[in-house]
Amino acid sequence: MAVTTVVGNPKRLSRTLAAAEAAAAAIAGAEPRTAPIDLAELYLDGIEPPHEGFEAALARVRGAQVLVVGTPVYKASYTGLLKLFLDQLPPSALEGTVAVPVTIAAAAEHRFLADLQLRPVLAELGASLPVPSLALRESELPELDAHLAKWTGAHLPALAAAAGRAGVGVPA
After folding, report:
1. Per-residue confidence band for 166, with pLDDT thresholds at 50, 70 and 90
2. Does residue 42 belong to any structural domain of this protein?
3. Which residue ranges does the record assign to the NADPH-dependent FMN reductase-like domain (predicted)?
4. CA 172, CA 79: separation in Å to the nearest integer?
5. FRET label pair with 91: which of 24, 63, 145, 172, CA 20 to 30 Å apart?
6. Residue 171 forms part of a structural domain
7. With contact defined as beta carbons under 8 Å apart, do 71 and 121 qualify?
8. How confident is the prediction for the chain on average, in pLDDT?
């Protein structure tokens, strides 16, 4: 099972990256994963796509069976950095890919705001979104493992079925 993570937090090595990577690990179980695509690194020098790093990221995104897309909630939406990346993807770039948004909000009332706008964009790019997003508050990050266990317990079977692999998330 090819599980890839892309994170749109403009801060390098962010808590969003850590949470999305933890979610990808929980989904993949014992299966190998690719290194995360940290968009803060990809666009570090403000280089606009297409460029070599973007093309490599695009190839990894297209090769993913499951794509974990992480973003903090910024101004009631997902980040502009993630939007820049998604806007550069060709039509149907996520065809055949199961996507799992992971959003992190500072306040409870903002918890689902990024998700409301991110899911339609991922679907427009061809992704399948068969399970609810993992929507977290910053205050929940210290108990991330417990939240991941609850989320995977509820949604991993449907996610695995959609990805075409019953063994997703099952340790060897």
Report:
1. very low
2. yes
3. 1-130
4. 36
5. 24
6. no
7. no
8. 89
Question: Which residue segment(s) compose the domain that 81 sits in?
Answer: 3-163
Query: pLDDT, tens digit, for every residue of 28-73?
Result: 987 778 889 999 988 876 666 556 788 889 999 998 999 999 999 9
CATH number of 114's domain: 3.40.50.360
Which among 44, 57, 132, 123 is positioned nearest to 88, based on CA atoms?
A: 57
Q: State residue 111 phi and psi, 5-degree precision.
A: -55, -40
- Scored b (16 or more CB within 10 A) or e, 100-121 reads bbbbbbeeeebbebbbeebbeb
In a domain, 72, yes or no: yes
Residue 49, φ and ψ in degrees, nearest 5:
-70, 165
Residue 172 within any structural domain of the chain = no
Written as one letter, the residue type at 112 is F
Q: Say which residues have a Cβ less than 8 Å from residue 135's Cβ, sequence separation at least 6.
A: 102, 103, 105, 111, 112, 115
